[in-house]
Design goal:
Immunoglobulin-like, 3 domains, five-stranded mixed beta sheet, 11% helix, mainly beta, disordered N terminus
């Protein structure tokens, strides 16, 4: 029998703890913070803080119901929304130099419980409100070829902001506070890439971009040369790229063609390549690069002696 009392005491203590937890859980549902964590900077510098309250003011002692916003150490009374009575708000003004603030809501009310006056105080957890200076709305187009100029539309852009296409840094130009321009780099075409802006270390998703193949053009369209003869071939893209473009040129008559490595310099849209005839033969040059359709150029190399005899 000596062991019964301690056991009963322990059970009573556990039950009390359970009731306390239920009571706290009920209180956490009484007042709910529904304020967005992040807001865009607005010209008025006013931001709405909103909470939802499940306590009916009609069921409390008149004059005792009060909900406050506590922010920056100051207490501000909330007012009820007209269309949604369970919601209460306060429009708080923040300075242009402010980018964040910590706050919480507090509910105070009294109820008459069998003739006894009871005071209730409910608080929401401490939260942080952040003001975002930049906002990326969308891309001006959803697809484009390698080398094309695209635009990101938004707000709050500045010099130094960059655009990232997938894992590639896209050449970016600052147009205005609302527009960033970027060029699609020579990536693998036929794929959709996520587009981000990089602003002061913050990476923000803008949208998805489908990249199409770009095309080469050449002049002349075909080549007819003799052994040992040299001629120029112009290889051109539709627009100048902001980085060097290394062009891959192969042939099915390797003994008939002598030519250097082909590169279109950054900022240029074309390059001249010197083609020298080797052994007589007939075939094609195949011109390609990442993000470009392959272009076939017919080539014929004649024997120099046969040409002279004729």
């Amino acid at each position: 029998m000596k062991c019964v009392k301690p056991m009963i005491k322990a059970l009573f203590s556990q039950a009390s703890k359970g009731l306390l937890l239920l009571s706290l859980a009920g209180c956490s549902q009484t007042l709910t913070n529904v304020t967005p964590q992040i807001a865009q900077r607005n010209p008025s510098n006013m931001y709405r803080f909103t909470t939802r309250c499940n306590v009916d003011p009609a069921r409390v002692i008149p004059g005792s119901f009060q909900i406050d916003l506590i922010i920056d150490g100051e207490r501000h009374p909330l007012q009820m929304e007209t269309l949604t009575p369970a919601f209460y708000f306060y429009d708080h003004t923040m300075g242009m130099d402010r980018t964040n603030a910590k706050y919480y809501f507090e509910l105070n009310y009294q109820q008459n419980n069998r003739g006894k006056l009871r005071n209730f105080v409910v608080k929401t957890p401490l939260s942080e409100f952040q003001i975002q200076e930049r906002c990326c709305f969308c891309l001006d187009n959803e697809r484009g070829p390698v080398g094309a100029e695209m635009k990101v539309l938004g707000r709050g852009f500045s010099e130094g902001d960059r655009v990232i296409l997938g894992e590639y840094n896209a050449p970016t130009s600052y147009i205005s506070e609302n527009v960033l321009s970027f060029q699609i780099p020579p990536v693998i075409a036929g794929k959709t890439y996520p587009v981000y802006t990089l602003c002061n270390g913050d990476k923000n998703f803008v949208g998805n971009l489908l990249v199409d193949n770009s095309r080469f053009s050449v002049d002349p369209k075909s080549l007819e040369i003799s052994k040992g003869e040299k001629t120029d071939l112009l290889i051109e893209t539709s627009c100048a790229l902001n980085a060097d473009l290394y062009v891959n040129v192969t042939t099915d008559v390797p003994d008939s063609v002598i030519m250097p490595e082909v590169r279109i310099p950054a900022g240029e849209s074309s390059t001249h390549v010197t083609i020298e005839g080797g052994e007589p033969g007939k075939g094609s040059l195949f011109i390609s690069a990442q993000g470009f359709d392959e272009l076939e150029v017919p080539i014929q190399v004649a024997d120099e002696l046969e040409e002279e005899e004729k």
